# Entry
Amino acid sequence: MDLKKEERYYQPDELHRWFGISSVLFLASIIIMFANDYIREWKGHQRAFREADVALTRANIESAAVDDAVKTELEAAVATAEAQLAADQSQLDELDSLKTVAEGEFYWANMNFMGTTADLDEARYLLEHGLTERHGEMEARKHFEEVTAKVKLFKLQSEGFQAEIDGYDAETTTLQARHKKASSEMNELLADLSVFERKLLLIDPEAMSMANRVANVMRDLPVLDFLAPSIKIQQIIVNDIRDDVNFAVVPKVDRCTSCHLGIDNTGFADAPQPYTTHPNLDLFIISASSHPMNEFGCTSCHAGRGRGTSFTSAGHMPADAEQAREWEEKYDWEPLAFWEEKMFPAQYSEAGCLKCHASEPTIRGAEKLTLGLTIMEKASCFGCHQIDRFDDWDRRGPNLALVSGKLTKEFAFKWIRNPRSFRHNTWMPAFFNQTNNSSAEDKRRTDTEIHAIVHYLFENSGDVQLPSTVRSGSVSRGQALFESVGCQGCHVIEPEPLAIETDLDRMFQRHGPNLIGMGSKATPEWVYTWIRDPQFYNPDSRMPNLRLTSREAADITAYLTGLTNDRFDGTAAPALNEDALADVAFKWLVKNASEVDAKSRVDEMDLNEQLLFVGKRSILHYGCFSCHNIPGFEDSKPIGTPLTLEGSKPTHNLDFGSVHEIEHTNYNWFEAKLTNPRIFDRDKVKPYDERLRMPNFNLSRTEVEAVTTALLGLAKSNVHADKMADGKMDDLIINRGMTIIKDYNCQGCHIINGQGGQIVDIIGDPNLSPPNLNTQGAKAKSDWLYKFFKSPTTIRPNLAVRMPTFPLADDQWNDIIRAFQFSAGATTTFETPHSSAGKTNSTFVGAYLASKDMGDCAKCHVMAGKNPTNARTDWAPDLALAKDRLRPEWIVDWLRDPQAIMPGTKMPQPFIPSKADVEFEGAEEYFPQAVIRMAGDDEALLESLRDYIYSVGEK
Amino acid sequence: MKITVRYITLIAALITGTQLWGQGSITGSVIFEGKGPRMRTIKMGADPVCSAAHTEPVKSESVVVNGNGTLKNVLVSISAGLDGMKFEIPEEPVILDQNGCTYTPHVWGVMAGQTVEIRNSDATLHNIHSQSKQNRAFNFAMPKVVKKKNHTFDKSEDPFIIKCDVHPWMRTWAAVFDHPFYTVTDDTGKFTLENVPAGTYTVKAWHESGKKLPAQTLEVTVSDGQAASLDFDFTRTAK
Ligand SMILES: [Cu+2]
# Structure
């Protein structure tokens, strides 16, 4: 041995030992590798879920279980019925054979009958021929009578056999009935149970056969689990929605359901995460919803990393700091690094809707997102920030081209300096006295700038022709008019802030300004001129014309100008500081010139020139022209960051400055910015003109969250046209019209597509409020609608509120009419011509149904100018208008069930007699023959009523 | 055949949990001291058929105080304490008659699913217009030849108005319950709820005057087979 040992350069024993150790280590590391690969977060979830599912199914079985006594009794009943059936079998067989025989007989009799019917035709021909030819008549008549008798005989025969067959069938059914009934009762009783029992067999090890149980364990074992494991990754591939993974665009692959296992199962609504049922199965997940899970996946809406199979790698994001702490503890969570598109925290989840619903003015079911977008419209974010969605939208703020005719300089100064000191909920934001410009030095500058802005505006203002005096009006009449003619569709008079949260309805109700303090703002002459014709002062105004008489306008003017803001009137604007003005002018000039040049240029300017120069620079700096039309700034470009893809902006491009107390995420940045637009200037030392200048809109918590949701939604996306909610022409047409409808706030007064109409809360009674425009597109003829929009006439004499005249162009009206039509599915280009052809049977029946004893239409409806007998508040549209105004198909739908179209309407369902209604003793005395004949045919009766309505007013 | 019917009823009872009612009862009266408001006379001249139906002037039924110092037309019902119990729906219909251009009864209750038989005993046209919110509102014409229409309400609902738009004075108040324990006080101001199972309940007394005579609730415990009694007092404190 020793010799051998010496013969080698190495020590075999030593080598063996090391080989042994290393192979053990190697094996161990392989085992650890396997284990590490095998043990996954999601597998634990699947096991836990299966246990929960077994428990749920067992509970379901238990609750579906049937009382034993009942079951036994039913079983006994089934058994008895079976026994009876067996006993009756010979009888059944006999019936069957009898039936076969009868069927044979029937066949022959029927063949004979049909054959002789043909013969009869021949005989009839011969007879007729004989009659005309005047020969062989006798014989032909005899033949005809013979054949007639034969036909009668065969007919009787075949009817007899048919009756026999029916008899056998009936007997058979009776004999089988008991058994059929008992077993169907049994099946019904056990139906639910068997579904659950079948399911349990598949998932519950205790319910499985031994072989299945072993197989189930085997297929989940390491290595073997590559075959067909019961515990496996679930994934949904969505081809139409793609992910941009840098240098490649790939279909979405969502593995979320590997852990979110109860997402489509209603039984898990109260289960803990990740097993919880989706909270809105009507809209999402299940195949009957409009967003089935296997077509849309999960991250299409929620964002996040769909391929992730652990809590952190899926890109979950907490709703707040508290949840973040909870997750760190529970799931070892941390924000997913190197993945920008993290999941939307729960409160912003509606952000995901926007990518496919981009052109919808209001997105149903996404109330928060819609609110955010609506706030962006109202606040005119798109004025300063380019946003594709609002491309070609007009400026939202008042036109200032004629401002000197409306305001005093004093008012303008105080207003610009602090808009909310005049009107607590104005959409005019605050630029001054903010956290980055409120020092004494800043105020010296900003007061000067405001003076200069006002000077510029008034110097460049045109003149407006106002009447020298306005006839005196009555405040109380004015108030009554304000509260009845429809001003409150868009305006409120709200002296103090209300402690209620903003929602879409509230936005509709406050579409126009809160009209407090009008007397402190404008002269009666201006207000009078404005309300009589808004476009006279501002051709771009969206305010419609209520066609007020001079007296009505004077009354409303008296009411509005009687409302003053004494606290605001009591403060005075500070005098202009001329030194400060020169300083500001110098600071602007020195940016592009040497100190000496700048100084001399300032000295060259007189006061007026300095004011105009500083005014112009300030308007440019603060971007006033973004919302207001200001002479000299017609073509100026937006001053803010474009926001079209703000939701996709990498977080490191957002400047948090020295704000470290919040987690650095894009939504936290948006929220902080919207709450205080100047916050990221904190602790910074910047020259005045380089400081943040976004104004403060004083948004509430709810509003900030809604706008943040909308901003997150403005993100890059890669969705195939098929998946877009507006992928079809119809949707685009509806969205285009609805956008105008929203812009002009038609929904302040009317319910359109289920939204709006809250003026009814003020008026009280839906019957005295502007009509619900449900089915409007199917209801009104488009020609009539167009004429009505251009020049509204009174349809409903009972309403005090009136349809105003809107300053819309023809193509806009067409867009609105088409949106109505497409929403109602009534897209015909040409109307069905329909007119009553004088007095017909149909109009006669209709007139009867409308008569005093039946429907008594004239009780409420004006009839061709003749006033109804009821109180005026109950009056309804003149039926003579119907033929020009209403589509014939719609009238029938309306008459069939008025409540279905306009819930709460006073219009009753007319009396449409059924067969039973006219089958009493002496019915002929009540009903004309024609009505009795038609009774029961609802459609024909409704149509006759429609025909009658079309004939009202015809000579 | 009969046996099967019995089975079905039995099975239905077991599945839906319908219970046989109890043996207890709740009785009492609704007190109203004082005269109450003057009862307005209804002018029916607008429809000659209506005015011809009455020989004496018709008084508004909005507040009816009985001679014995009690209040008529108060809807008394169990408003809480019946959770989880289900009750069979009576087969006989509730009858609402339009007679002499007034509704009889003036206040009434019905169980969800129970038939309401709406009659027109007048030789004139009425329309019957429900202002229900939970149940689908209905509104249909009943010409004089139509003597009967049936209707059922699906869901329980607090009292709501049913009215006739042809005759604006015609109003009746209906309430829909998911249990049978409700009644309306009569000319003596008394009420009795029968067959009440043992238990503790909240009993509510409601009058159509709304804010002027707000609804009242009282707690009561019914022991098995016993009669519990309680009185409501609607005497207005602020006259
Ligand atoms: Cu009536």
User: Anything to note?
Assistant: The interface with chain A takes residues 3-4, 7-8, 10-11, 14, 46, 125, 127-129, 136-146, 165-166, 168 of chain B (CB under 8 Å). Helices of chain B lie at 2-16, 48-52. The two ends of chain B are 64 Å apart (CA to CA).
